[in-house]
Structures are given as C-alpha cells and as structure tokens.
Amino acid sequence: MKLLFASTLILVGSCASLRHSEKIDNLRNSITYDDKKVVEKYLNTIKPEELKTHVVEVSSDKYNGRMTGEEGHDDVCDYIRSYYKSKEIKAPKSNKDYYQKVPKSVLPDNLNDSQNVIAYIKGSEFPDEYVFITAHSDHEGIKDGEIYNGADDNGSGTAAVLEMAEAFKKATNDGYRPKRSVVFLHVTGEEVGLHGSRYYTENPVFPIEETVATLNIDMIGRVDDRHIDDENYIYLIGSDKISTELHFIAQKANKEFTNLSLDYKYNEDNDPNRYYYRSDHYNFALQNVPVIFFFNGEHEDYTKPTDTADKINYRLLTKRTKLIFATAWYIANSDERLKPEII
Ligand SMILES: [Zn+2]
After folding, report:
1. How confident is the model at residue 13 (pLDDT cuts 50, 70, 90)?
2. I need a surface site. Which of 130, 136, 160, 234 has the fewest CB within 10 A?
C-alpha cells in the first residue's frame, strides 16, 4: 500500500508539472506582435543623436547636479515639461502644469519643495488603463565643489522616456494611438530615498489599481565590468516577480526587435546588491503593479562627478530604449490587459 501511495503521488506530481509547463508554453506562445512592421516604424524614430541631445542637456553643468528641491533640478523639470508641451503631449487634467508637487514635508530635512513631472497620451480603447514609463530626474547635486552630472544616472533614463514619448506621439498622429493610456512619469527625490515615486504611489494621479505595469529606467547608457567583452546586454530586474506574462513580453520584444542579451543576475532573490528595492519601480511593486527595472549595472563613474555625457554609449542607449519601447507598445496595445499573476 505504501509503495502504491508513493507512486500515485509521483504521478499526480508529474501531471501537475506537465499542466504547469503547458500553461507556461501557452502563455509564451500567446505573445505575438501582429503589427511588427508598425512597431518597427516607430522604433526607428528613436535615434542616438536625439537621445544624446537630451543627455547632454540634462547632465550639463548649468543644472548643478539636479539636487532635489534646488534650482538646477527645478530647471531640468522645466526642460522636461517644455519638451512635452512642444510635442503637444498632454498633462493630466488634474495637474494641468505637468507638475505634481512633492512637498518638503515628505522629503528629508533641509530639502525644499520639489515636483514629479507627468505627461500622457490617452488610450483609444482602454483609456482608463495606464502603462507607466518612469525615470528619476534628480541627481546628487554639488559635493566638495564638484558638480555631479549624472549623465548615466539618470540622464540616460530621462532621455529614453522623452524619446519614447515622442515615438508614441508620432504613432498617435499617424493613426496608431495606443489602446491603453501611456504615462510618462519623471520622479524627483530618488537619490535621497525614492521619495518622488513613493509620494506618487501614495497620491496617484491615475488610479493605482488601473496601472497595468511600470517600466522603470535608471542607468542604461553605460557598460559594466561584467560585460566589457560583450556590451550587447541589459539587466532586467523584477520582471517575473508579479507577472509571469510581463516577463515573457519583455523577452518577446527583445527577440523580435533588439536581440540584446537579457541578464537576470540581479533579479535573483538572494542577490546581495538588492537592486530590486533600490529604484522607483519598487514603490509600484509594493502596490502590486507589475514592474521591470532596466539597468546597466554599476561602473567606475557610478555616483562620481565623472559620470558625464561624453562617456555614454549612445548606440547602446538607443538599442536599450527600443527594447523598452517595444515592451511598452505590447502592453499598451494587447487585446487583453496584462495580468498581475505568477504561473
Ligand atoms: Zn539612479
């Protein structure tokens, strides 16, 4: 009897695992780009020279390292807002000036009031569902008389968001408005403790339960020591933690359009760097919003005044931005809403 019981258990176990792998295969196979040529058309509007223009601007000395609450950071927020205005990409109805004030009462001591910048393109079929693309706009200011330019951290992410917004806007103007609304959120106060994203998720402008996914970008313009010999990579962190489907969407986007090597080293639960907890996507993950954190890893200029625009790899920044755009495009245009479900 005992033996039979044991073998029955094994049988049940193997059936269960077969069903699981079938489920996984079905999910993976369900992700297809029926509009591949259209996606490619707008991917190709993301250009290295335009990304460079934004990185050079945002990381220039005149912004004095973009410390939260200081004039330099306010001026960068104005640059970002002016860009959206110039492209006729709208502000939320509730925040007509594109700004969400982040009061100094929620920021660490001695910092002044600051702001998140929010723009969006309204969806055609599911306008009340929102796909977020986020990047922090602040950096470390001036220390010991040296300006911390933060070209990679996070001029690269800021530039990527602006370029993707332009690409979605061009598609919209040509009749390919995304089915879901796409929100471009530039958060403040990241370097001093993820404050802008925390404030946003606690005071959301669009309902957090209708926030379908958040793609967060923090440093995607450089190459780390682990990839000196093959720079065609990006780290993805968190993609499988809330939604298995999101994990597969990013893989499909990469396979179809960019062919980067997707490195999941820092996605391991026991990774001592704990990057999953260290950028703005984490505040969305706390609200059960599926997230991906796109990241190039640390390099010799990380958190140093030598993180300057001349050291950015613009060809690679372009390719990585395209991966994020193709991922966002799928989430925004799929017939079924992305499920926050692990299978
Ligand atoms: Zn950063």
Report:
1. low
2. 234
